[in-house]
Amino acid sequence: MLLISFVAFSQTPLSKREIKEVKFSGSGYELGLQHGKLLKNEIGEILTKMKKNVAYYQKKDADEVLRDFFTLVQFTDDIKKYTPELYEEVRGIAEGSGQKFNDILVLNLLDEFWVYIDNIDNHHCSSIGVPSLNGSASYIAQNMDIESYTEGYQILIRLSRTDKRPEQFILTHPGCIALNGMNETGVGACMNTLMQLKASTKGLPVAFIVRRILNSTDKKELLNFIQTVPHASGQNYIIGIRGEVYDFEASAGKVVRFDPKNSNGTVYHTNHPIVNDDVKPWFEKYNPTRDVKPVNSNSSIRLASVKSRVSEKPVIEDNLIKETLRSKDDKNNPVCRSVNSLSGVFTFGSVIMTLTGKPYLQVTAGSPDESEYKRMDFTVK
Questions:
Q1: Model-level pTM?
Q2: In the chain, which stretches have pLDDT less than 70?
Q3: Domains of the chain in sequence order
Q4: Residue 96, exposed/middle/buried by CB under 10 A (0-12, 13-18, 19+)?
């Protein structure tokens, strides 16, 4: 099993772990060069483990799989068009770490590569959004679940502010520009893979969309971007903008807002489409326009668990969010997935972003039932 092969390198007791914080400044190529040089060894290690993982499951040489992938996809044109500085950042990471550009790029095409290999199992993220009502705090939160070979490589990037960019906290692993994150103005983003939605070999990949969101401070501009940019792969985005939260299911063909109309304004999502009907043929039976729902799927069971905990509470504080993200109401389909799970997937990190008042982040290295949340505050201007 993947877990047995690739988890042994973590030596720190889970209950005592704190996430590794790194700080980068500058922009574009300069930013990536710092990333690549500082984390050169870790990037080399995670690339080796990623390729072992690909070879194990694809029964084929990993470099051959990656060559075939890059022969098919054409993401670089849209990356350069919509986020040119992020393209340069990836180039800088490759140069700084001494790795091939495409090897670093694929670390930043997590969801798009999953689409290519048709992997519908390695994503179990659960997300929550809580708006501010009558002066209450606003939050977005997520368990980020990815492959177990990434265990021990959790990092939190503190991206310094510039004249053009707010200070940011970014949860990720070495070599990857973002998994999720927030900025100092109270803008945050959490993502859930929706493999059932139609994807494209073109468009802007998820990691680049995340960073583009975190560079934003203007609500109107941000909401226009997420609804008009061409999306490379199916994804749900919970976006917090200070006291407001928005949920969008995005496919290559359309973007649809999800709003369950709860009296407390909460939104939540796991890994299946609820309102976007731009689905792949194999999921047509469960098209959101139909009455048949995938009620027994892992994603549906986790969604029901999260919904039962937050949808009707008049007041939601971070302790309730922590309880929800630590929950294992169904032992076979838990919201919180231990690194010892036999599925090959685990909760890489858990985040709670407080977006009102003085924004701050709470984050764990690994699953929140095995690691305490650490509060991270932005620097004072």
A1: 0.94
A2: 1-16, 119-123, 341-343
A3: 26-116 (1.10.10), 121-377 (3.60.60.10)
A4: buried
